[in-house]
Amino acid sequence: MNLLFEQIESSSPNVIWLDKIENMSDLKPNPSIKSWLTETRLLTHRIKKSGYKHTIRVLREELGATPTLLKNKHQSEINYIREIMLSINNDACLLAQTLVPKATLDTHHWIKSLGDQPLGEKLSTLPKVSRSVFEYACLELSGVSVWARRSSFEIDSTFLWVAELFLPAIGGFKNLDK
């Protein structure tokens, strides 16, 4: 499944986010997907621990307006938007979109130089970083259910938001135990 956030946003303009997967009315993720959605440790650490090879490819980095998946979290025309694809053993498994308001970017210039480094790994090395609870959604894209989560990070009294979409291929990596 090759999707870009542009396609996702146009296909899912009215995403409903809930604070618990159990609150989803009709759909429930299979146990493998659920274990990824509810993982509180760094996803890259979980993958590395398993011995699988992972890569991160930057899809977009630019200034722009607040993306659809994060509209009700922050509204501004000037944000730094970073979109990446994480692959495990060359299978695209996760898309992530990071929204960094200008005030956060002014304080944390390093965000623009992450390249193919995972954001979470960098954040884990910084003092005074906390993550919010997750919100969950299920999007119907090209006839396939794609599960998503989003959260915010507070870094020294500044914020950034992350939306992550778990592509169907990630369900094949069941033995990446928590």
Tell me about this structure.
This protein is an alpha+beta fold and about 180 residues long. It has a single domain (about 5-170), classed as Chorismate lyase-like (Chorismate lyase). The chain is about 20% helix and about 35% strand. It contains 5 helices and 7 strands, in the order H-H-H-E-E-E-H-H-E-E-E-E. It has helices at about 5-10, 30-35, 45-50, 100-105, 120-125, and strands at about 55-65, 80-90, 90-100, 130, 135-140, 145-155, 160-165. Strands 1, 2, 3, 4, 5, 6 and 7 form a 7-stranded antiparallel β-sheet that branches. The radius of gyration is 15 Å and the shape is globular. The two termini are about 25 Å apart. The model has no long low-confidence stretch (mean pLDDT about 85).
